[in-house]
Amino acid sequence: MRSIITTSDVDVTYNKGQTNEFKALKGVTCEIASREYIIFFGPSGCGKSTLLYSIFGVLEPSAGEVMVKGDSIYKYEPMELVMYQRKTMGIMYQSFNLIPSLTVLDNVQLPLIFAGFPPVTRERRAMELLDRFGIAHVAHKRPALLSGGQQQRVSVARSLVNDPEILIADEPVGNLDFVSAEAVMNTLEEINQNDKKTVLLVTHDAKYLPYAHRVFYLDYGKIDRIVPNPEKRQIIKVRPGETIVTEIEQLARIYPYDTPEQLRVKSLINFLTQSLSFDQIVRLEKMTQHVIEGVLSEDQFRTLLTTDYEEGGCGIKPKQAEEMTHKMFQVLEQSQDVVRFRRVHRDQTTIDLARFELIKHIHTHMVGEYKVEPDSRELEQLTKMVTNRVYGYITREEFHRQLRLPFEEGGGGFDIYLAADLSRYLEKLIAQGVSHFVQHQESKPESTNLHAKQAEKFEEIDKGLFGRLTHILAKKKQNA
Ligand code: ADP
For labelling alongside 341, which of 3, 30, 287, 317 has CA 20 to 30 A away? Predict the structure, then answer.
């Protein structure tokens, strides 16, 4: 491969020789080809920005070498290094770094002023870029009057005005709302594909990984692994099999910070415990999210589960879909008992009613699933334990232990399987109920109803697949 950037055994140590010395990069070796889109990815503090700024030429490694276009950049004379930063590199920051007292147009042409271009050329080039990114109409405004998304587009224009070969971006969409972020990410992709610039981008957000040709996963100052994106045509030759879409790659999207070993474990556990593929799981997650947001009804959810995968559904067999739908809505509905139960904590007149509802549902679950019919004394004991767990007076382990304890000793006297199932079931109700309670109680106490935010959510629901599908489903139903 013809690499444009090579780092060899790069170490970066902050505060060298002092008590707070910190090694932020440890022996980083990598090669990046011209026109590649690379994402440096990893948890906060793992060294992504440090690597980016070392390549930018402003952070000299304490050991190792950074080569760009065949030159060892830290061997440049100071003025040559400045020229390298101005001509070869373009940069975008999370905080845009626009100069507030200058107009948008002046901000964009600023690098050309430093480079000594005449005013007419500067202005023409800057206006072309503003026009291209749809912000020509704000050329004479000050940056503060622009939205975040517009400001970041100004900074894209500024980073390109020198026509650099390499564009680097440090969390460029970290401060933007979802829609503006996507617009900027799409622009960067276009700059990579159409303008044929090499793009290096730092992010800790996994949803942007699909934009890159390759993702460099960093951890504790090292490149942990390099993963080619199987959905992008690669610039560099990859070894046979390296881009095959394996389950591990798909899992890495869901659990980006897990090691390859942990991902292999997850893959096997999934095989042992579930009949669904990861594609189905990912889609199921999205649908479940919509259910929790109150956007998908029970009927719509059931229908989508059984709709063909190719048509945008989940491709799950009807019997299994029925069972899943039933369980999901049962848990969500009964988790409302937990919400009410906790809410009326201090109001003794209604507490028994709320508790009664919850116990009644757990009782029904026991009879339905296990054909176990507890007597009234057993129910009383169970009520005590459930109350303590729902209020958080005992841990889930303690609750489980009490369920198994013989009845005479104050426990539930349940066998190992029933105890495990009951505690799992109650934890699901608590997980849904308590987080729902916490989310809503302070802002809007009256909106604990699952569907209360529905109208609002409809406004912002993605206009993509699910928006269209639910529309089609509604139409089908109307026609039927
Ligand atoms: P990331 O971009 O992955 O969040 P950084 O490259 O910014 O991480 O930082 C890597 C580590 O180096 C962090 O632990 C950070 O606290 C430390 N660090 C960064 N800059 C400095 C600095 N100027 N002085 C001391 N430590 C720093």
Answer: 287
